[in-house]
Amino acid sequence: xxKLIAIALxxxxxxxxxxxxxxxxxxxxxxxIISDPDPVAPEPTPExxxxxxxxxxxxxxxxxxxxxxxxxxxxxxxxxxxxxxFEPTVSEVQREEFISAQTALNEKLSAPEGLSFYVLRNxxxxxxxxxxxxxxxxxxxATWRQALVTVQLLEGDAVNYGWAYARxxxxxxxxxxxxxxxxxxxxxxxxxxxxPGRLNLIFPCFTAPYSxxxxxxxAKYAALLLYKNASDETLGSFLRSIELYAETLGLxxxxxxxxxxxxxxxxxxxxxxxxxxxxxxxxxxxxxxSQLYVIRNIGFMLQVLNVNDSDIQRAREKMHYSEDxxxxxxxxxxxxxxxxxxxxxxxxxxxxxxxxxxxVHYIHYKLLPSDVMHYTWLDEALAEYLSCExxxxxxxxxxxxxxxxxxxxxxxxSLDEHMAxxxxxxxxxxxxxxGISPIDQLTAYGKYYAAKAYMGxxxxxxxxxxxxxxxxxxxxxxxxxxxxxxxxLFDNWLxxxxxxxx
Length: 502
Ligand SMILES: [Zn+2]
Hints:
Shape: elongated
Strand content: 5-15%
Number of domains: 3
Bound molecules: zinc ion
Radius of gyration: 32 Å
Structural class: alpha/beta
Oligomer: single chain
Number of strands: 12
CATH topology of the largest domain: Neutral Protease, domain 2
C-alpha cells in the first residue's frame, strides 16, 4: 500500500512537470523506499535525546531545619538553562518524561533559567524558592503535584496554599495531566462558619494534624471553586473571591499576614511571623486537649501567633532590643520550652503559647549573658511579665476545651481578671508553710516557678514598669533602682502576696 502511494506521488510529480522542491524527510517518501523490495519499511529509530549527565554527590539540607540532611548521588543534566538532578536508579524513560513535562510547564509559566529540579525516589514534593530549588518524587511526574511544586517554586514557598493548589489543578488540566482526587465535602459552609480562620486556605488547612480528612476535602473543594469563581487567575482575584464567599456566609475575611508553608519531611510545617520563624515537626501525639485546640482551630492558632508577636514587639521596645533577624523556633514534644545560644535554632518549645515567653528569655540572655543566670527568679519574672497576653491565650485554650458548666465558671474576659484569679496565693502559702526561706525557694527552679513569675507583676506595680525592666537588665545593682536590697524586696513581696485579699 505504501509503495503504491509512493509511486502515485512520483508519477503525479512527473506529470505536472514542475521542478521538485527539496523535500522535508517524511513528507514525501524518497527513492530508496520506492525501490525497496521489502514491503515493510524499517521503523524509524525513536529520536533519542543525546543527554550528557554529570555524576554529582549532593548534600541537601531541608531548608533551615539544620536537623535533617540527606546525601544522594545524582546525575545532572542541563536543559534550557535549568539543571535536572536524577537519582541514578531513575530510568532513562522516566527522566525524559520528567524533563518533557517540566519543560512544558516551564514554558506555560514563563519560568526563568537557573532553576534546579531534583527528581528523587524516596523524598517528597517540596519547593525552596529562595534558592531556586524544587524536589519531586519520580512517581508524580505529569501530575498536579508537579504543577503545585513548580507554582510554589516560582511564586514563593509561602504563597497562599489554596491558590497554588487550584492553580496547579488548572495547569494539570490544561496539560492533560493527572489531577487530584478527593471526596466532595458534605457541608463546606459549616466548616468555615465553625472556624472562619479556615477561610485563609493556608497550608495547615490542607494537612493533618491541623485538619481532619473532612476539613482537608472541604478546603480543597473550596479552593477549586473559589479559583473558578475568581475574575482571573491571579492571587488577588482569588482572595477577593474568598471575601465574596465569606460575605454570603455572613463572615468577614481579611487575609492573615503570617506565612505558612511545607518545610520537608523533618519539620513539615513552617510559620513565619514578623519576629519568629517556627519550624514544626512534632506529631502532637499524647498532647492535652488545650494544645490540640490551638492547632486544630486555625482562627485561634492565628490569634495566638499574632498575640505572641505583639507581646514580642512590646518586650523588644521595653528592653531596647532591635536586632532584625528572625528567631528560629523548633517545636518538639515537650512541655514549655528552652533557649539556646550559639545555635541556628534559637528556641525549642512544645506549644504556640510559649513563644513570647521564650523569646523574652532569648533576648534577656543575649543582653545579660553572664549575669542573668545568677538571677533565675528575675528571668522568669521578666519572661512571664512580658509575655502575659500570650500566656492568657494559653489559659483560654484550656477554658475552650471545658464543658459548658465548667466553662461558665472559669471563663474570664480579660487578662487582669485572669491575673486576679490566679491561684498563686495558695502556692505561696505552701512556700511560707514549708519553713524553707523564700530566697532559697525563689532561686531554685521547679515548683515555685509560678511564684517567681509573679514577682515581676509585684515589682512593676510597686516600683513602676520601667524600674522593673531596669532591674531585670541590671540585676546586680538592684538597690540603686529600688532603694532596698534584694533580701528586703523578697520580704516585702512575701508580705504582700500573703496578705489576705481585701
Ligand atoms: Zn521561662
